[in-house]
């Protein structure tokens, strides 16, 4: 069923858990994410967004994701990830997306506020919630580039409070040492900065670039207001490794179906494992 409203996001925040946002590029990744949601019994977001649209086409991928969510018994939201285009945001809202992310992080502060306010206005007309981003997250959304976080580009706690108050967003994506994609450089989150942002901001926080993040860092983020976690690179790697392992047996018969099935199942299994990480053990505290 299509998951609407912010209840799942707020429930995750209250429980010290996180709503997983998994990026989908094609039919098999949509199927794998859907299967993981069904197996886990947890709410999940299918993130069919701006970057995957370049590969699959916007209308085709929108329909795939919305159809999967509507037909499934699982609680599945369909989320537009990293959009800088108000027309694209409007198209997804009109198609039935349950949430959108407007990404004005590349803009000056006041321009980011203006863009985000307009996205919020449009989303309210369609009953959808809005995520925005403040601070610059390095790396590429589709390819791991060994990105390195820069302290100067991280989210400022005071600005975060001003930004949320001015825009009315429902969730805020932050830059606190996280990066897009896998990296050979160890990732360390600035948990002190994250705690200050949490104190300044009355809405759930979002952590992009969680692939490969050490579990203790991830749980530290959950204890400091993060209630949505985005994962992409781990699913991409699982898909590609499954395809590589299946290719030798598939080539003689040109068996593309076995390749697609292997990739789909790898996405499902990896997403299930990640969902488990987003529920810290009951004894973990806010330390």
Count of DSSP-assigned helices: 11
Helix-strand topology string: HEHEHHEHEHEHEHEHEHH
Average pLDDT = 90
Ranges where pLDDT stays below 50 over 5 or more residues in a row are 144-149
Biggest sheet layout: 8 strands, parallel, barrel
What is the number of beta strands? 8
* Secondary-structure content class: alpha/beta
Q: Tell me the β content.
A: 5-15%
Determine Rg (CA atoms, Å): 18 Å
Shape: globular
The CA-CA distance between the termini, in Å, is 36 Å
Give me the side-by-side strand order of the main sheet: 1-2-3-4-5-6-7-8
The amount of helix comes to: 40-55%
Summarize the structure in words.
The protein is 48% helix and 14% strand. The chain has 287 residues and is α/β, with parallel strands linked by helices. The chain has an 8-stranded parallel beta barrel with strand order 1-2-3-4-5-6-7-8, surrounded by 9 helices. Helix 2 packs across helix 11 (256-277) and helix 6 (109-124) packs parallel to helix 7. It is globular, with a radius of gyration of 18 Å.
